[in-house]
Amino acid sequence: MSSPDPTAIVADTEGIIREWSPALADFFGYSAAEATGCKVDMIVPHALRGRHWNGFDKAITTGSLKRDGKPFTVVALHKNGKLVPIRAMLQLTRSDDGTVTGAKATILGRAPAWIAPVARAFLALPGVRKPAPNKHA
């Protein structure tokens, strides 16, 4: 799993971070040494983990992504516990024979700052904080 992108996270099929570009410390607060070998949960807000893992597992199993290569906006979790709105792009990683080996998220930049307080308010709604069950918990 080689990633020349200066702002990429590469995770294996179990969601373990295998590559963490050093520039990501500016977005998430974690160095490559801190992040490599950890689950991607470290940057996924708790209330969104069930949805994240359901989509991750479906992509790994089916070999296709709904947002393959298309930029989108999402809130991530900074090391300091604050929500960070980011623009990202996802792609599956594959071996030479086409087998899915994981996923790569390229962080394109910060999203508009107004997204974080809106996401915080949404995540505070009753019932929203209950993450869907997932095998990665």
Q: What secondary-structure arrangement, pairings included, does this model have?
A:
Elements (H helix, E strand, L loop, with lengths): L7 E5 L4 E4 L4 H4 L3 H4 L13 H14 L9 E6 L5 E12 L5 E11 L4 H9 L14
Antiparallel strand pairs: 1-2, 1-5, 3-4, 4-5
Keywords:
137 residues; five-stranded antiparallel sheet; 4 helices; 5 strands
Written overview of the protein:
The chain has 137 residues and is α+β, with helices and mostly antiparallel strands. It has a single domain, classed as 2-Layer Sandwich (Beta-Lactamase), CATH 3.30.450.20. It has four helices and five strands; from the N terminus they run ββαααβββα. The protein has helices at 25-28, 32-35, 49-62, 115-123, and strands at residues 8-12, 17-20, 72-77, 83-94, 100-110. Strands 2-1-5-4-3 form a five-stranded antiparallel beta sheet. A hairpin with a 5-residue loop joins strand 4 (83-94) and strand 5. It is globular and about 45 Å long. The chain starts with 7 loop residues before the first strand and ends in a 14-residue tail after the last helix. The relative contact order is 0.21.
